[in-house]
Specification:
The complex is a heterodimer of chains A (270) and B (291). By secondary structure, chain A is an all-alpha fold. Chain A is 77% helix and 0% strand. With 291 residues, chain B is mostly helical. Chain B has one domain: MetI-like fold (Orthogonal Bundle), CATH 1.10.3720. Chain B has a two-stranded antiparallel ribbon. Classes of the chains: A mainly alpha (270), B mainly alpha (291).
Chain lengths: 270, 291
């Protein structure tokens, strides 16, 4: 009885979470001319036509590279700035921590649309219009607070005595940071790095407004701009979506522990 | 003392540039712009004082519509997500936990908003969407439902997509909260044979309160600025029935190119967001005191 109940509940969760993915894959392997017909629900035979259309689409390949470059660039910057900042807040400040952490949370939660035009002007002034640099810089603004929140939590868990002992031994703050806190904080860095990568991979509004050509467009913009003559080319859209969700599925499977820790850790203490 | 200061500058200095400067400067510019009539196309650029706000709060029915849509979206999606998330989390805590279920729960959360919006748009397709097909086959509806082009349904469809995508996050947060409840409390309740409903309302929920608050604030603020899902699924239509504040501000900026008025909308949204946060924080301030 209980076993059946468990199986039933698992079934519900599985169906709820996975059904849209399954439907996306099923659609993507249908013959393009069959996509806008239902029934049949399942494809009569598998077709790679949608995928080969995507792979021969140079702009889409370009878009994938852009996303990777922007994600890695912005994550690298935010990890450096964020880890140092978190250390500073956690170990060097006597007061004002709560205030700083709250301000960072406000930045994290700011509606993107409210800063999009002023930031666009700054990007333009720097001569970064329609380049990957504009997106790397802007994404860093929003992922630095994310990293600080996760790393602050990680550093708070390291006993203060360690810091004091190192000070007594005459180590400079920089040495303590690079030799003690940075190595001990690696799990936190992994968590926050992954969260930042996912954020950059998914961000839409800035990518949409700061780019005017496929030179710097990223995956979400690429997918939103797919269009056909009458209806959306759903076969290609689902194939492209399946492709870009694949790396995310891998990340989630192999680093579930870090992701959960990062998400929960930054939320727990508030 | 001097080296102390130098250290603070080294470690915290970058934060002053990277989020601080790049957020404060735009916000100041937003404030200035919001006091202007500025329409790029017609080269209009003059001071307006508070006229934008007078119009916004007094005469602009579209603004109030967008605010209503935003609040409806926020309350419905966050409310349902909390209920569903709590159910899943309770099951994981007291039923059966496994690492795989966490992987599966994380998947919808981790994919791009744009992808999940397109996915739901495809499933809700009036003629060839799987959802209409299933409902028709089951005989629950007699003709295809126009999910995204019916003004009374479109916003609810977007809420459905949002619930699918973010319930996992809430589940994980609440699950972590449930795990932190001391085992002694749980076994005491077991020994006392506390009935399940009392157990939930008098023991679990009060203990879970801080986590519920965190989840509610984070998700509430995130839902209040919703843009991607709606922009991709409906673009704000049909007949502005899914236009939220972010979408309204975006359209005012980039479709009508009214940079002054767009800034007034955006700044009003930021102020509302700060006010909401402030109220919730003060109502539950005990949580924020470090102990």
């Amino acid at each position: 009885m209980t076993r059946a109940l468990h199986a039933g509940f698992y079934g519900v969760i599985l169906l709820w979470s996975l059904w849209p993915f399954i439907w996306q894959w099923v659609t993507s392997v249908k013959v393009p001319s069959n996509i806008s017909r239902i029934p049949p629900l399942l494809p009569e035979h598998l077709s790679a036509a949608n995928y080969s259309a995507i792979f021969s689409n140079e702009t889409f390949i370009r878009v994938i590279w852009n996303s990777i470059a922007v994600g890695l660039g912005a994550t690298a910057i935010s990890l450096v700035v964020g880890a140092m900042g978190a250390y500073g807040i956690s170990r060097l400040l006597e007061r004002g921590r709560r205030w700083i952490m709250l301000s960072l949370l406000v930045v994290l939660m700011l509606p993107q649309v409210s800063v999009v035009t002023p930031l666009y002007r700054i990007v333009d002034l720097m001569g970064w219009g329609d380049t990957l640099w504009s997106l790397i810089a802007v994404y860093s603004i929003f992922s630095v607070p994310l990293v600080v929140w996760v790393m602050y939590q990680a550093y708070e868990e390291i006993p203060e005595t360690l810091h004091r002992a190192a000070r007594v031994d005459g180590s400079s703050e920089w040495t303590i940071f690079t030799r003690v806190y940075l190595p001990l904080g690696i799990p936190g860095l992994v968590s926050s790095g992954l969260l930042s990568l996912i954020f950059c991979w998914n961000e839409f509004l800035f990518a949409l407004t700061f780019t005017s050509s496929y030179k710097a467009r990223t995956i979400p913009v690429g997918i939103s701009l797919f269009s056909g003559q009458y209806d959306f080319p759903w076969g290609e859209i689902t194939a492209a979506s399946s492709l870009v969700t694949f790396p995310i599925i891998l990340i989630v499977i192999f680093s579930q522990k870090y992701l959960v820790r990062g998400l929960v850790g930054s939320g727990v203490k508030g | 003392m001097k080296t102390e200061f130098k250290n603070v500058v080294i470690f915290l200095g970058p934060l002053l540039i990277l989020p601080a400067l790049f957020v404060i400067w735009p916000l100041i510019e937003l404030m200035v712009l919001s006091l202007k009539h500025k329409v790029i196309l017609f080269e209009i650029d003059r001071w307006a004082g508070l006229e934008n706000y007078q119009y916004l709060l007094g005469k602009d029915a579209r603004f109030w519509g967008a605010l209503g849509n935003t609040l409806y979206f926020t309350v419905c999606s966050v409310g349902l997500e909390l209920v569903l998330g709590l159910m899943f989390a309770l099951y994981l805590r007291f039923g059966k936990e496994s690492a795989w279920i966490k992987v599966i729960l994380l998947l919808p959360w981790a994919i791009p908003n744009v992808v999940s919006a397109r996915l739901w748009q495809w499933m809700l397709h009036p003629e060839v969407g799987i959802i209409n097909h299933v409902l028709l086959t089951l005989g629950w509806i007699n003709e295809p439902v126009l999910w995204l082009s019916d003004p009374t349904l479109a916003l609810n469809a977007a809420i459905l997509a949002d619930i699918w995508k973010t319930t996992p996050l809430i589940t994980l947060l609440l699950f972590a909260g449930l795990q932190r409840i001391p085992e002694t409390i749980l076994s005491a309740a077991k020994v006392d044979r506390t009935p399940p409903v009392r157990f939930l309302f008098y023991i679990l929920l009060p203990q879970l309160n801080p986590m519920l608050m965190t989840a509610m604030i984070l998700r509430g603020l995130d839902a209040f600025r919703v843009f991607d899902v709606i922009y991709v699924m409906t673009g704000g239509g049909p007949a502005n029935s899914t236009e939220t504040l972010s979408i309204y501000a975006y359209r005012t900026y980039f479709q009508s190119l009214q940079f002054g008025y767009g800034s007034s909308i955006a700044l009003t949204q930021v102020i509302l967001m700060l006010a909401m946060t402030w109220i919730i924080m003060n109502a539950f301030s005990s949580k924020w005191d470090r102990s």
